[in-house]
Amino acid sequence: MTQKSWTWIHRTDGIYVAQARLTPEMVGGAHVGYLIEKQRLAGGPSDGVDVVHVNNGLLSFDVLPTRGMGIWRAQVGELSVGWNSPVPGPVHPSLVPLAEPSGLGWLDGFDELLVRCGLESNGAPEFTEHGQLRYGLHGRIANRPAHQLQVHADGESGELVVAGIVDETRFHFCKLRMFSSISTRVGQPSLRIRDTVENLSGSPTDIQLLYHINFGPPLLGAGARVVAPVQALVPRTAAAAAELSQWDSYPPPRAGTLEQVYFFQLQSNHQQQTAVLLHDATAARGVSVHYNTRQLPCFTLWKNPTAEADGYVTGLEPATNYPNPRSFETRQGRVVPLGPGETATFDVELHIHVTADQVHRAQQQIAALQVAPPTIYDQPQPLWCADA
Amino acid sequence: MTQKSWTWIHRTDGIYVAQARLTPEMVGGAHVGYLIEKQRLAGGPSDGVDVVHVNNGLLSFDVLPTRGMGIWRAQVGELSVGWNSPVPGPVHPSLVPLAEPSGLGWLDGFDELLVRCGLESNGAPEFTEHGQLRYGLHGRIANRPAHQLQVHADGESGELVVAGIVDETRFHFCKLRMFSSISTRVGQPSLRIRDTVENLSGSPTDIQLLYHINFGPPLLGAGARVVAPVQALVPRTAAAAAELSQWDSYPPPRAGTLEQVYFFQLQSNHQQQTAVLLHDATAARGVSVHYNTRQLPCFTLWKNPTAEADGYVTGLEPATNYPNPRSFETRQGRVVPLGPGETATFDVELHIHVTADQVHRAQQQIAALQVAPPTIYDQPQPLWCADA
Amino acid sequence: MTQKSWTWIHRTDGIYVAQARLTPEMVGGAHVGYLIEKQRLAGGPSDGVDVVHVNNGLLSFDVLPTRGMGIWRAQVGELSVGWNSPVPGPVHPSLVPLAEPSGLGWLDGFDELLVRCGLESNGAPEFTEHGQLRYGLHGRIANRPAHQLQVHADGESGELVVAGIVDETRFHFCKLRMFSSISTRVGQPSLRIRDTVENLSGSPTDIQLLYHINFGPPLLGAGARVVAPVQALVPRTAAAAAELSQWDSYPPPRAGTLEQVYFFQLQSNHQQQTAVLLHDATAARGVSVHYNTRQLPCFTLWKNPTAEADGYVTGLEPATNYPNPRSFETRQGRVVPLGPGETATFDVELHIHVTADQVHRAQQQIAALQVAPPTIYDQPQPLWCADA
Asked: B2 pLDDT band (50/70/90 cuts)?
């Protein structure tokens, strides 16, 4: 038995470990060469942000318990996975003005490889008929600090886990708890996220969750492509429709280029598993996102090929919904109902491909999912797009 | 002379003690078995919150200097006094969006046994004619950190005091300072709050203050009752009026039950002292709130018998006013005018009753205050209720 | 070579020094008797605020990296330079509600000798046609923590420098970086600010910057005067116009006195250098602000002679613009355009005068700049004043 656990944050037990280091010697077992390390950043806008650095010997990544268990960035060998946001992050949630009347304050903290949008809502801001902010852009969960944090290491299987609990609660309103577990195995170029959202309330509610998974250079660049088993594709706007033929490829960075968004239903296998790949121009390196379409029926591709200094980035976004204003999505039924005490679980995997062979295998895996021809809509569709 | 004082926070003197412990040995005198202890919480939404734990040998309670000298919770033997909020508190003020356009951001930090609402305003949010937030729910004072904190212990009398200074100031607007002193005596099941609010300004102003004192299980439960020397009772809404006959008793927790609010004038003795009691179904345990009706002429009873997970709770709320929007209360004169440099003092006591005898004595004390029959209004009254 | 540098904050290098002390022994060279010291404040609303104290042997001052490199206060011998704000500062930015719908939340943190207003905007709040906050009072830069901080000392020249980098960025919106350098020389009663603002974006933008430099007693008092080489003077409002004849003198503190604001163009020398002096009633002590009118073409005088408790203060405010709402100033062209990667530099000096001789020399220096008679407008002018 070489499974070991450490608790680094526990609100009700009064545990908080600012700095810690978990090494193979502390775990035992056959595996070596890995590390889990916790730091508390200090100074500047990051002051007070906890970072958990996981290095499995091949892949390393940083989890941000203070920012709702987001994943800041990842690295395999020389390959950086993530993007260069103009935001000097990670930004402490206390400096992110989610309540700004514009509904856009969330952007002040946006610099992660993976940021969850939810849980009460995600998507574009929504306002009351009097213009008062009702739902801010992409919700609150990414700016709620985890009040519980544990790490686990299994010396036999080589599994490494960072597990946190994040609440999104407001008296009289939502009472949601997310149990998030981010795991990897020693020597593997992949990580798995399993999030279970519980409705703590005695009354039913509806939730939304979108995984905003963001990639910039070097994976993203001129000629980079996205590969997906498309069942249906809808451009979000007329401008996106005008560039429909290039939906799966990327131009070079260019200042002032506007973002384009495409909405998808993806095909999946008999277990409802699907995958989307982003690879660079030479198909020599890439990253694929794997998830379950029963859990996450909607997929959004966000293309933002602006200047590098402004955030040249694309988002692969599996979700319970499309990132339209909450009420629009509610009307389309794109929310997850949760009865009192009920839970919903979401699984997402990231695989990083560092050779042409690996990219090729991912391409083949996705090709195999494409069993029927896609339906491509050449205009925004009214049931998909709030502005159509 | 066995009165000793320690300064744990002093902004201008540059004093800040993260952790401290005051024991009888440090004080001298006859009394033993008590403790005052300061902690600084770390991690999660409580990161940076100071907690002062007072244990007088019988009663213990936690004061939150960082949250405007609120009282988080109390305990006598096995009896927990307070409530289970869905909020994972105590929440640091920097994570409480008081400025949210909805005016409801205050709820994100609401989990205390005693939380002050004020000082510029309290009550329901108020908006300008253009829908812009003018006064947020329950004001700012509960989310302002004390910039001065002292503890005192008297080895002879056994008095233990936690004293803090909290400012609610905004250049060009309010300049209010609250001197708060929370005291108890060794071995007594009670605590006393004395708050003195000073208008630091050279110009006159008006203040409001409401003590939102909140109780959940085990004191609150099906069949629990509130006992008060009612002079006048007004249901706040038609829905509250419909349940008027049960105003003083509580149903079991039930998901989805809406809150009901009742406004009161209470009778008091010749020194204007009055008391309100909450006791459990068997009248075996209870808590009473004692205060002065000249200082706090208004009393509000808030009943929120929802599911336990959503916050099954009742609030006993002595105040300078009813928690209507500020402008409505101003028109009714329910504010406290303070000239330049003037002060107003407010005294509130909590007595915890852990035997049927103690509850019975509290019932008798309140019965003695009821010298005239109450006036019960069966509908909301226009001078009392903003929505009437 | 006796120039030495220390890095006390560096986000990407993971450097943060909570407390540090730089003394002549650590630098070498001829100069002695100076000190640069860093502290991290704890407790109350200042919790987490970094303060860098510089003492050059004659002049001391405190820089606030956490508040956008503002200067909290200064001192020469017995003379305090700064003001007594009703705000118990320095306030941590996380407690300053910039996003408050009123647009006035900035006031909760306002207590510095020198606070920068900008960079996207400064001036009065501006709202959309629906009443939604568009630009809050005086912008964001004063509430953004520096993510990089260095100190330099030159043992030969006696130059002491505090240098910080502060970003004002929002994804999809502004991407501005300010390199701020605040310097002094051993034994000199003056300090110099050099701020370089860079547009990090690949797209052009417009910035604004106003130096809100604030003085209260003892420099400010009944009979104190401001001396400026006026080219044009415009009262901002009819009320300011009514007191136009006393624009350059100050009444004693009086509760309830309303602020008055005057807008100026100042004359300058052939290098576009100008200066404004504030001296006390006897012209025995004073402070002058020196800057370049090409960099900062607008000057605002803010007079707030209210009760001392409410902030008896005057502001000398060189700026790129007048503090009108952003859109009004944009229409008048009073913004600084910055192309991709372009920078703009701003230089401001404060000289403190502690003898009548020094004040007299400053008066003469300003008199020499007044080569043409001033144009005094007796009413607000439409191109200057948003409310005219």
From this structure: confident
Residue B1: what pLDDT?
60
Q: Is the peptide bond before C218 cis (omega within 30 degrees of 0)?
A: yes
Q: What is the DSSP letter of C67?
A: G
Beta strands in C200-249 (DSSP E): 205-215, 225-227, 230-235
Q: Would you give the DSSP letter of residue B258?
A: P
Q: Do B307 and A50 touch (CB under 8 A)?
A: no
Tens-place pLDDT, residues A142-201: 999 999 999 999 999 999 999 999 999 999 999 999 999 999 999 999 999 999 999 999
Neighbours of A225 (CB within 10 A): 15
Q: Hey, which chains touch B, using 3+ CB pairs under 8 Å?
A: A, C
0.95 cut: is pTM over it? Answer: yes
Domain spans in chain C, listed from the N-terminal domain onward: 3-376
Edge-to-edge, what's the strand order for the sheet holding B286-292? B15-16, B3-10, B148-154, B159-169, B175-185, B190-199, B343-353, B286-292, B273-279, B225-227
Nearest CA in chain B to C133: B132
Query: Pairing relation of β-strands B230-235 and B375-376?
Result: parallel
Closest residue by Cα to residue B149 from B45, B6, B311: B6
Distance CA C30, CA B353 (A): 73
Chain A residues inside the 8 Å CB shell of B306:
202-203
Q: Is the ipTM of this complex over 0.85?
A: yes
Return d(Cα A143, Cα C384) in angstroms, integer.
Answer: 42
- In sequence order, which residues have a C-beta less than 8 Å from that of residue C1 and are 6 or more positions away? none
Tell me the pLDDT tens digit for each residue of A331-353.
999 999 999 999 999 999 999 99
CB < 8 Å to A149, chain B: 43
d(CA C74, CA C350): 10
Give the Cα separation of C285 and C79 in Å (integer).
9
Reading the block at residue C153, the tokens are 């000392």
Sign of the alpha-carbon torsion through C377, C380, C386, C388 = negative
Architecture, CATH, for domain A3-376: Distorted Sandwich (2.70)
Residue A387: the pLDDT is 85
Closest Cα to residue C180, out of C165, C190, C167, C191? C165
Residue type for A314, please? T
Rounded Cα distance between C272 and B231, Å, is: 75
Could you report the per-residue pLDDT of B226-248, keeping only the tens digit for each? 999 999 999 999 999 999 999 99
C98-107, pLDDT tens digit by residue? Answer: 999 999 999 9
DSSP conformation class of C25:
H
Partner residue opposite B88 with nearest CB, options A101, A131, A147: A147
CA dihedral (C307, C310, C316, C322) in degrees, to 10, reads -120
Q: Which residues of A touch C141 (CB under 8 A)?
A: none
Instruction: Tell me how far apart the 2 most distant CA atoms of chain C are, in Å.
Output: 63
